[in-house]
Amino acid sequence: MARNYPPDHDPSRPTAPARRRARLSDQETERRMLDTAVAMVHRDGLTVGLDHLGFEDVIRDAGVSRTAVYRRWPYKDLFFSDLLRELARGAAPASAPALEITGEVLSEVLSSRSEDLASPQGRHDLVTELLRVTAVSDFEAVHGSPEWRTYLALQATFLSLPEGDLRADVQAALARSERRFVDRVARGWETVATALGYRLRPGTGGSFPLIATLACAAMRGLVLMSLSDPDLLTRRVPANPTTASAASDWSLLGIAAASIAVTYLEPDPDVTWDDLA
Question: 127, 193 in Cβ contact below 8 A?
Fold first, then answer.
């Protein structure tokens, strides 16, 4: 049979041997497949399921042997079950500032308004502004995050899985992820409260994990509502939920966070401030 060669083909030149892909162990194949699929879900988001994710596409992008993959998962449904477990184990993504209120965010606000620390009203106004400003960036970041959409979709839809080990495994993994996430947010709130001389208000039954749980719930609810009503993302309400020195335009999430703070936090009378004036 005649063959068509390129014009510069030299039949006398020895042909280079084909490069063979290094053989991966079954454990390496499994890890690469799951990591690749998780990255694809986080890139595109988990909408109503995994139907948009092609098994063969994952194999191709993972750069692994089809034979090894089908040896590990004879049926693609088995792979997608393991993928759901993997997504649930790492489901809680990093939070944004208004929920977690990191030390970095606190330092930035303090450096720009350090004079407010000189008086009780100034410190109260500072806390108010911290909640108001960071809530906006938090809402925007979460609303536009495929990782957060995956997280919310898993939380909302895992009960649609058939009764059995898969649903139990996903539920248990989501519960562990949720506890880790709430703990991280609670530590952030406690850091800010301590730094600015606030304490839990006696008699309210409050705790920093409770504050974190309520803040996360408010965020989640508003994000879900904004998927069908995008105006919620930019809506601002003239308000003064903390009785600060002046009213301002607040996002809905900011009002929720401020209301939670006012309910459970108060200035600590045992904290003495140096004269910063």
Answer: no
- DSSP SS3 for 136: helix
Residue 103, pLDDT above cutoff 90: no
- Which is it for strands 265-267 and 198-200: parallel, antiparallel or unpaired? antiparallel
Residue 198: strand pairing partners = 267
Asked if residues 144 and 45 have their Cβ atoms less than 8 Å apart, the reply is no
**pLDDT (0 to 100) of residue 223:** 85
Which among 28, 35, 41, 40 has a CA at the least distance from the CA of 69?
28
Which ranges of the chain does DSSP label H, i.e. alpha helix? 26-44, 55-62, 66-72, 76-89, 97-100, 103-112, 120-143, 146-157, 165-195, 208-228, 231-234, 252-264
Match 């693609």 to its residue by tokens. Answer: 76
User: CA 226, CA 265: separation in Å to the nearest integer?
Assistant: 29
Q: Is 0.85 surpassed by the pTM of this model?
A: no
